[in-house]
Each structure stands twice: as C-alpha cells, then as structure tokens.
C-alpha cells in the first residue's frame, strides 16, 4: 500500500529491493493492532463479496418474478463498508508505521478507495434490481 525508494509495503509484508535491483528481501508486517484490524476488515470484505455473488446466483433461481435481490445487496454494501473502514484506518494510522515522508501510496491503496464506492454502487443496484422472466 506504500511504495518509495526501493521499498514496497502491503498489509502482509514489507519488501526492500537491494541496489542490484533483482533481489528482494521481505519481512512480515508489524503486529500492530490497527494493522491487524485493517487485515481483518479486508478479509471480511472479500468474504462478504463472495457471499454476495453466491447469494445472487441462489436468488436468481429461487426468487419469484418481480422479486428484489435485497439479501445480495446488503452483503455487497457490507463489503463496501468493510473496504472503506479498512482504508480509513490505514490512512489515519500508517504514519505510526512509516515515519519517512519519502514514501507515497501505492496502487493497491488507491484501488481500495476505488473499490469502496463501486461496491456500494453495486449493492444499491442489487437492491433496485428486479428479477425478470
């Protein structure tokens, strides 16, 4: 989620590239409570998204004509809220982990903030969606 100066950090490990450019040395991420909460909420968002997909297929075959996909939408909205809370916690607390200002946010961090409104939007679309014949 953070990159800079031959260093890349995600939720699970910290990797540094040596001067040769080919060798990476990775350490496990720190055991901070806030980082573990970010990891847990990101895993929860994946679980809610998979449940949402599974429930969509189940409801596709069991709903009556004109029925709405409420349960699918609720799980998708929960997935979006988990992504939002994980990214928000990381945004507020990452300075405790990396004090150097030479680092910047990586693509995975930006992707998390993009995934949040998209998951909420898809949840709302599921709620509005009606089953047709």
Topology:
Elements: E1 2-4, E2 7-9, E3 13-17, E4 24-28, H1 33-62, H2 70-93, E5 104-105, H3 107-128
Helix pairs in contact: 1-2, 2-3
* String of helices and strands: EEEEHHEH
Q: By helix and strand content, what is the structural category?
A: alpha+beta
What's the total number of strands?
5
Instruction: Show unreliable segments.
Output: none
Radius of gyration: 19 Å
Distance between the termini: 44 Å
Tally of contiguous helical segments:
3
Strand content: 5-15%
- Helix content percent band: 55-70%
For the residues shown, what is the average pLDDT? 79
The biggest sheet, with number of strands, parallel, antiparallel or mixed sense and barrel status, is:
5 strands, antiparallel
The best one-word shape is elongated
Q: Major sheet: order of its strands?
A: 4-3-2-1-5
Describe this entry's structure for a reader.
The protein has 133 residues and is α+β, with helices and mostly antiparallel strands. It has 3 helices and 5 strands; from the N terminus they run ββββααβα. Strands 4-3-2-1-5 form a 5-stranded antiparallel β-sheet. The chain starts with a strand and ends in a 5-residue tail after the last helix. It is found in: Cell membrane; Membrane. One of its GO terms (biological process) is regulation of cell cycle. Belongs to the PMP-22/EMP/MP20 family. It holds the Pfam family PMP22_Claudin.
């Amino acid at each position: 989620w953070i990159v800079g100066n031959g260093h890349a950090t995600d939720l699970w490990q910290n990797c540094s590239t040596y001067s040769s450019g080919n060798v990476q040395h990775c350490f496990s991420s720190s055991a901070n409570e806030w980082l573990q909460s970010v990891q847990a909420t990101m895993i929860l968002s994946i679980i809610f998204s998979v449940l949402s997909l599974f429930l969509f297929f189940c409801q596709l075959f069991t709903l009556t004509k004109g029925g709405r996909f409420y349960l699918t939408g609720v799980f998708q909205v929960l997935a979006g809220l988990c992504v939002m809370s994980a990214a928000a916690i990381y945004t507020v607390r990452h300075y405790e982990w990396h004090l150097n200002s030479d680092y910047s946010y990586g693509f995975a961090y930006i992707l998390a903030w993009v995934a949040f409104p998209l998951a909420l939007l898809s949840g709302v679309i599921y709620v509005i969606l009606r089953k047709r014949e």
